[in-house]
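Hi all, posting the design record for the shared folder.

TITLE: backbone redesign
STEP: 1 of 1
STRUCTURE INPUT:
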């Protein structure tokens, strides 16, 4: 990934035009918008009530009545996929927010202070990296029990060192620059320099990393739900839908196909969106186009 160290000087209209012409960004943005719209719609309406069990309608194949078919309890799979999108997006969004809110200040502080503070924070980051989100969730669940909140905490904790490293790397590349030295000579504190100069110049890096971590958050939430550590019944979740479908693949493959496609399409769209953002906001990329 190319390190962004200068704020783009183009206006929003020019960037919007470039974004619309960028195929990766346009495709990723459109699909992400559709998934987000589906999740938002689920707050107001779903084709069927997912908490209502209709055993007489169990394992119905996709049709005009049930577009995605029904599961072993007679629940509408399309309605469950819609609500599962809401849960996955919520968990990933809050977890990324935790990573940004705690990791970025730590990374900027480490870059500004240097020395023992920088070394200690980076070794602490390495320690957190040694415990993946799934392992952290298992430990948290052993203490507090399974649930979406614990999944958010586990994924959020794993995101903190990721954003800390990105913020630190970007800040370290900017601190030796002449305008930073001039700001220090003018008597500005390191905290003020970080707020006025460092953070605006690493915003692109953080934005791209946020889209990547959002996609990874979707996968992590699905993984945790698959092993029973995410959202609990009767709240649908893409990961738990896959778990419930694994013993019925021959009898009702649609139970796994549609939530699996939802995960793949959403993660792919977010990765395309992140690549597009990196290309659009990278000055070197813009000069090549």
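Okay, here is what came back for every position:
SEQUENCE:
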């Amino acid at each position: 990934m190319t390190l962004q160290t200068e704020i783009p000087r183009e206006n929003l209209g020019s960037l919007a035009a470039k974004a619309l012409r960028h195929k990766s960004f346009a495709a990723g943005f459109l699909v992400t918008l559709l998934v987000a719209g589906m999740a938002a719609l689920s707050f107001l309406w779903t084709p069927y009530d997912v908490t209502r069990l209709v055993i007489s309608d169990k394992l119905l194949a996709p049709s005009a009545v049930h577009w995605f078919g029904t599961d072993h309890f007679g629940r509408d799979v399309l309605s469950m996929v819609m609500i599962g999108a809401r849960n996955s997006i919520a968990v990933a969004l809050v977890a990324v927010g935790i990573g940004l809110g705690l990791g970025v200040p730590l990374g900027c502080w480490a870059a500004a202070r240097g020395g023992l503070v920088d070394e200690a924070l980076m070794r602490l980051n390495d320690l957190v990296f040694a415990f993946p989100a799934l392992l952290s969730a298992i430990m948290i669940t052993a203490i507090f029990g399974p649930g979406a909140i614990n999944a958010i905490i586990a994924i959020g904790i794993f995101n903190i060192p990721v954003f800390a490293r990105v913020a630190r790397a970007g800040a370290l590349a900017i601190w030796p620059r002449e305008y930073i030295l001039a700001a220090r000579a003018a008597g500005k504190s390191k905290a003020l320099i970080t707020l006025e100069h460092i953070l605006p110049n690493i915003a692109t890096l953080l934005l791209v990393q946020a889209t990547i971590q959002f996609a990874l958050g979707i996968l992590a939430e699905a993984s945790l739900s698959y092993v029973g550590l995410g959202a609990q019944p009767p709240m649908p979740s893409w990961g738990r839908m896959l778990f419930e479908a694994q013993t019925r693949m021959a009898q009702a493959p649609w139970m796994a196909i549609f939530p699996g496609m939802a995960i793949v399409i959403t993660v792919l769209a977010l990765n395309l969106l992140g690549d597009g953002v990196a290309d659009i906001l990278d000055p070197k990329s813009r000069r090549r186009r």
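COMMENT: The mean pLDDT is 88.
Let me know if anyone wants the other runs.
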